[in-house]
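Section 5: illustrative case.
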């Protein structure tokens, strides 16, 4: 294109305003992200699009396999226990074999175990494969988080994590709607589709993500250090443990949405089928708000964003005590989802700033295990509190969020100091790689 043609194109854009604005918005939303990220993003979306079995697993076990409710609880618990240790295993594998191999192993493994879970009919085998599904299903999370931490500077990480979270929720919304349609044709179809989606996602990462497994990835360059480290090194990091304590409190509150919220709605005489429509509000708000809010939050102090997000989430859950209609519940879901968007935009970027490069996988593994632990504690604590009334439950949620926000306020200066030191170290390493000299400490 000639110079005069360039000028004419610019004039045309200025006249309409739309192409320039759309291009600028798209650049703000996706700029600075390489093909390696979009490989992980695409695999995550594909994996999530087919995630249909777990939400319907209890129905399948009771209706198709004739298993008693008490045994179903045991099977679900084994799957949940597998999920607790899944991210620990994934974090260890990331530091040993890299993110590409870990994501491929976890996703394809999930597909294989899901297929076998749908094929067996003995209770012992069902429990075994439910555990293995849980064990494999979460391995990809510390892998994708570690890849982003290794390949992108701190300014870009919140954008990448936000887009990844957006993909998860986009896939979740689709899978719930599509799964509800497929289940009419039998539960076996859900297993086949879910298994195929997981296997396809794993193969996609393996085939298209090959170029990401270079020394520039950051994993192979730290292989020796990573193999000499352990989870004990993470447990010695008091700042990390304090951050995870705050994250546990937040997670216990957040997970009430899938445990005690439907029970509270039932106490108000709302039909179980309505719960799905109420929770759809969560996915819609995230899909609409995340792309706009992500770039804004990434420019703000991460501790301040976390404090604000946790407080908004607490207010949303607290407001649940004041409603009793489907529209009222949907409004509170929309409110606490705004807090969720804020927290999800920066929380994994904070982990990246706390973690030494050789141990990133294990830091994210312990972070993921904390979330899985919250998902196990939430129903136990929530149902116990619900015995004293819904008001007691939602008041406790507000107190937990206030405690988590206060913890973030106290940890903020230390997190900023660690982040600054991490940024200086990364800048020194980048400069050393450009001039061909070893960075300090290497």
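Designed sequence:
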């Amino acid at each position: 294109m000639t110079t005069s043609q360039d000028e004419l194109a610019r004039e045309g854009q200025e006249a309409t305003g739309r192409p320039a604005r759309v291009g600028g918005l798209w650049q703000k939303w996706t700029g600075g992200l390489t093909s390696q990220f979009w490989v992980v993003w695409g695999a995550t979306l594909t994996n999530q699009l087919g995630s249909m079995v777990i939400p319907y697993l209890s129905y399948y076990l009771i209706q198709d396999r004739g298993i008693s409710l008490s045994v179903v609880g045991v099977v679900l618990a084994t799957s949940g226990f597998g999920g607790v240790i899944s991210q620990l295993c994934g974090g260890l594998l990331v530091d040993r074999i890299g993110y590409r191999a870990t994501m491929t192993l976890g996703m394809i493994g999930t597909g294989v175990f899901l297929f076998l879970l749908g094929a067996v009919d003995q209770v012992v085998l069902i429990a075994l494969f439910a555990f293995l599904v849980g064990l494999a299903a979460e391995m990809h999370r510390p892998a994708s988080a570690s890849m982003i931490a290794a390949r992108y500077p701190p300014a870009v990480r919140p954008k990448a994590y936000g887009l990844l979270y957006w993909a998860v929720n986009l896939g979740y919304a689709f899978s719930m709607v599509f799964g509800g349609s497929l289940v009419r044709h039998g539960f076996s179809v859900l297993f086949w589709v879910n298994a195929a989606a997981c296997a396809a996602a794993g193969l996609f990462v393996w085939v298209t993500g090959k170029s990401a497994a270079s020394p520039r990835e950051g994993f192979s360059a730290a292989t020796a250090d990573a193999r000499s480290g352990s989870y004990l090194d993470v447990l010695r990091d008091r700042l990390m443990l304090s951050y995870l304590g705050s994250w546990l409190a937040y997670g216990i509150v957040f997970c009430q949405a899938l445990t005690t919220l439907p029970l509270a709605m039932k106490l108000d005489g709302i039909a179980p089928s309505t719960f799905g429509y109420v929770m759809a509000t969560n996915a819609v708000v995230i899909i609409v708000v995340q792309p706009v809010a992500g770039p804004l939050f990434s420019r703000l102090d991460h501790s301040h964003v976390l404090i604000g997000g946790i407080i908004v989430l607490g207010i949303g859950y607290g407001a649940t005590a004041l409603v009793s209609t489907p529209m009222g519940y949907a409004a509170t879901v929309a409110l606490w989802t705004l807090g969720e968007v804020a927290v999800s935009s920066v929380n994994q970027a904070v982990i990246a700033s706390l973690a030494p490069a050789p141990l990133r996988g294990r830091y994210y593994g312990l972070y993921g295990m904390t979330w899985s632990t919250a998902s196990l504690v939430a129903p136990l604590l929530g149902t116990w509190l619900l015995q004293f009334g819904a008001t007691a439950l939602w008041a406790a949620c507000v107190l937990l969020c206030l405690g988590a926000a206060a913890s973030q306020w106290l940890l903020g200066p230390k997190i900023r100091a660690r982040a600054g030191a991490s940024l200086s170290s990364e800048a020194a390493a980048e400069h050393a790689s450009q001039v061909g000299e070893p960075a300090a400490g290497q």
